[in-house]
UniProtKB/TrEMBL annotation:
Entry GO MF terms: oxidoreductase activity, acting on the aldehyde or oxo group of donors, NAD or NADP as acceptor
Keywords, in A-Z order: Oxidoreductase
Taxonomic source organism: Colwellia psychrerythraea (strain 34H / ATCC BAA-681)
Protein's name according to its UniProt entry: Aldehyde dehydrogenase family protein
Domain Aldehyde dehydrogenase: 13-469
Cross-referenced PANTHER family: ALDEHYDE DEHYDROGENASE, ALDEHYDE DEHYDROGENASE-RELATED
Family, as annotated: Belongs to the aldehyde dehydrogenase family.
Catalytic-site annotation from UniProt: 245
Amino acid sequence: MKNLSHFYINGQWVSPEKPNDFIVENPSNERQIGTISLGTNVDVDKAVTAARNAFNQYGFSSREERIALLEKLLSAYMNRYDEMAQAISQEMGAPIDFATAAQADCGRGHIQTALDALKNYEFQHTSGNATITHEPIGVCGFITPWNWPINQIVCKVAPALATGCTVVLKPSEIAPLSAHVFAKIIDDAGFPAGVFNLVNGDGMGVGSAISSHQDIDMVSFTGSTRAGSLISKSAADTVKRVALELGGKSPNIIFDDVDLESIVTKGVVGCMENTGQSCNAPTRMLVQESVYDDAVKIATQVANNIKIDRADKPGNHIGPLVSKAHFDKVQSMIKEAIESGATLSAGGLGKPEGFELGHFTKPTIFSNVNNKMNIAQEEVFGPVLVIIPFKDEQEAITLANDSPYGLAAYINTPDETKASRVARQMRAGMVRINWASHHYTSPFGGYKQSGNGREWGTYGFDDYLEIKATSR
């Protein structure tokens, strides 16, 4: 069992002001794998003071100095790559092969992308009689989730460090192991003391202290829309910049001119990946009426064939949900959908046979769903897919946009003109046509209640920069 009770502040591992143990559990077997301490306002104050003092120098560092540090960071990350993958697999239940190939790779990818962007970013240019300078905003507070833990840490930290900002990070208390490894990586890379600081805690404690702190210049949060709203309110009194990457209920539009078996299969697998715990998962499959029944049959068969197993086992399977509380939430939403009249085509209530220990849930599909049902409007954040019919292109667009969220949308048709026409009308920050990849260099973020601002690549720099006009 790992003792992770110390915080990383001002380049040192320090004890919390007041110990408050919190148990970290392996969701595959419900065993305790570590203990952290939940921090207080005093711990946050210490971290912010360290970050503020460090910014006085780091904020004026040269591009070349920051490039050298990010190159060291990338090297240090690769040296601990397997350690990172193991931490993610243990803390949130990602199968080890998936944690290695996808989850841990996000850290590498975001460091490399920020490094590449830094080398060519135009921090200064002339407009009329003014010199326009893009300067680091200052001390940044980051509050990150458990579902893609190192992805959400590094896609914030890497551009912040690249632009000259300093950082106070609160990772999820449910999945803090990967953040602990990352703090060691920062230390390995030799960043100046105070540039990066880590304080564990919960949302009501450390999260609130960060979002309301008068000496934090911007806060970036990834998580639920409800929590994002609370953070915005908490930050309002100090008028700090707030960047939010929130929930989603992403439509996956399937027209009747596709290779149905291939596209439906990709849709089901995409929804179930990471046990459905992805904000951009294609959780609403919208299928043209003429092929709807066939699509439901295909989707049901695919869901029934998805393998489930412990996270420490190699192979192509999904793992458990992250916690007992989250398992209960997903189960309650499945139950409510059944009671509301949706047709249960696969999965359902309870744990899969043979998995009584651990927070495992069945890959679940609902058909004959009305888009007004809660199961079609609320983010489940589990392996639950709804399949909804549509008559024509216009109804597909209407249904796709009939959501409080606007993070991602998926469009499937070989007709490129139609795909472009539909994509243009999607009220979503990311549109993938025929399962094209979304690369680290593309902006990540959404419309409406899916948040504001954009992360990843060059676009991820904007939230960490102020714009100054110096006229002569």
